[in-house]
Amino acid sequence: MSFKWKRLGENSLFLIPSIILTVALGIYPLFWMLRYMFYDYAGYGDALFVGLDNFRRLMRDGLFWESVGNTFIFAGGKLLLTLPLSLLLAVMLNGRLRGGNLLRGIYFMPTVISTAVISVVFYNIFNSYNGMVNTVLMKLHLVSQPVDWLGPKHAMLTVILVAVWGAVGNYMLLFLAGLQSIPQDLYESAAIDGANAGRRFWNITLPMLAPVAQMVIMLAIIASLKGYESIMVITEGGPIGKTEVMYLYLYKLLFPVSTGSPVAQQLGYGSAVGFASAVIVGAITGLYFFLSRKMNKVY
Amino acid sequence: MNEQVLSQQPPVREKRVARPSGNAGRILGRTVMWLFLLATAVLTLFPLVMTVSGSLKTGAEMMTGGSLLPSKLQFANYAEAWKQANFARYTWNSAFVSIMVTVGTLLVASMAAYVVDRRDFPGKSLYVTVQASMMFISVGAIVLRPQFDLMVALHLNTTLWGVILILVSAHSSTFFMLQGFFKAIPRELDEAAMVDGSGFIRTFFRIILPLLTPGLGVAGLFAFRHAWNEYILPLVFTMTNPQLQTLTVGLANLRYGSSAAMQIHLMMAGACLSILPMLLAYILANKTFIQVTAGSVKG
């Protein structure tokens, strides 16, 4: 009996730090949010119970739904550029290639750099009147006038390009890991049968990669729906709300001071927005998982 | 880096039996592929080159756009950023937070992972489920407010310990990574140690942890990278306390300063100061970084 108690004591001793931290700083904040989404609470003073009022307001909140639309444009654009590009790079680097390791190292480099810091740099090099991007484009005679990269017309494209820059190396590496688990003899026998590179890619690489790709794409979807750090630094959601995404809109409700936003702090309504945003991300992830379930089978 | 990375490259074997007719097409294909790979590498490195070159330009040169490379190297920018823009303080804060978070995360996660891997106890599957779901629930910045309130209650809001505790509380991915490493250490080893009279805690710290060094190194690298690059959390926590700002926060804030327009060269020098340590760690540990990230979706 005492032996059992001793084991239990040892187990608890090792688990307690983890459990305390997870409960206090992970689970408690979630319940805090679930509670305050039914309150009118400014973040100071009294909280007033208002039932479902926050959700009624959410339904009519044009700015929120605009930000949801922007989130889809941002995430869609990022995924459409990132996934094919990273897969292509992975396929090219999968074979024996002179300097392949060096190239891998270079492509992966952006993922070790702080998003906020490199966004400060991007903010400067996309600057319309003295930014390096315009200087280079004009010297190459690709454009005659400086392009207003951070203006209403191109700001979304700019933040998407920055996001792609930061993400390609990561997904390239994940695809590469998947590619390397495909047995090499499949390719050899296909080559003997006379299949060219294109056919081998469609008939062997893609189907064999499907289970890994399913996971990778899911991670990419979640990451692109909830990413807002670089947008916050580069455009702060502007100009005229063109790059305002869901989680950035939420951030501004919670911490208006830091962004110079004119709205007052609204933690009650913010909780409802946070909940709705999490539900949207969860629903899209779930939908993707349902639609892609066939990818899980290896042919 | 070139030397180190290139030396890992497997020997190139030329065993292709080229058909004479397909030679021209193959050379064309190879050329296109190499052009694509090199163009991607150039685009990946462009912002980094801009950062380094910008950090060595004069403020006036930065303002007018001008050429890619500085006309005369201004190393004084670094001294100025270090002193005038307070980067000495920011660097110390960043280093303190990152080191403490790395140590804390490794300790908390490794203890929990060891118990979960080696022993059975009531609630084990609940614990694992909660840790797994902590990685997927994303409610954005909303959790920051209850976390902040907790830190105020503990009087930790005026120090960096609040930020450190919150970052350590998000240890679930480290937990799962380390659990994988523990599986590779044979159970007989700790059983034998305990038969020899070594207690549970002693066995863990003196026998098992040292064996886990490679795994701890990799997990530590990831925890360090995460803490070093974190932006939103220290931003919110140091809003009223500029002395506690980390590199990412201090640098991004320079953008809002009244004289920011005149200080682009200082911003670039600051960006270099905050990117270079991480980049250096990456280059030294390039192989480990790439292998482990690659391994993370294999299972």
TrEMBL record, chain A:
Q: Which UniProt keywords apply?
A: Cell membrane, Membrane, Transmembrane, Transmembrane helix, Transport
Topological relation to the membrane, as annotated: Multi-pass membrane protein
- Boundaries of each ABC transmembrane type-1 domain copy? 68-288
Stored CDD domains: TM_PBP2
Annotated transmembrane regions: 12-31, 72-93, 105-126, 155-179, 200-223, 267-291
Where does the signal peptide begin and end? none
Record's Gene3D superfamilies? Answer: MetI-like
Q: Which family does it belong to?
A: Belongs to the binding-protein-dependent transport system permease family.
Q: What is this protein called?
A: Sugar ABC transporter permease
Q: Upper taxonomic classification of the species?
A: Bacteria, Bacillati, Bacillota, Bacilli, Bacillales
UniProtKB/TrEMBL annotation, chain B:
What Gene3D superfamilies does the annotation carry? Answer: MetI-like (1.10.3720.10)
Residue ranges annotated as transmembrane are 32-53, 95-116, 128-148, 160-182, 203-225, 266-285
Q: Which UniProt keywords apply?
A: Cell membrane, Membrane, Transmembrane, Transmembrane helix, Transport
GO BP terms, alphabetized:
transmembrane transport
Q: What is its main location?
A: membrane
Cite the record's Polar residues compositional bias ranges: 1-10
Coiled-coil zones? none
ABC transmembrane type-1 domain: residues covered: 91-285
Asked if ATP-binding is a keyword of the record, the answer is no
Organism superkingdom: Bacteria
Name of a matching Pfam family: BPD_transp_1
One GO location term (cellular component): plasma membrane
Residue span of region Disordered: 1-20
Family, as annotated: Belongs to the binding-protein-dependent transport system permease family.
Name used for this protein in its record: Carbohydrate ABC transporter permease
Q: Upper taxonomic classification of the species?
A: Bacteria, Bacillati, Bacillota, Bacilli, Bacillales
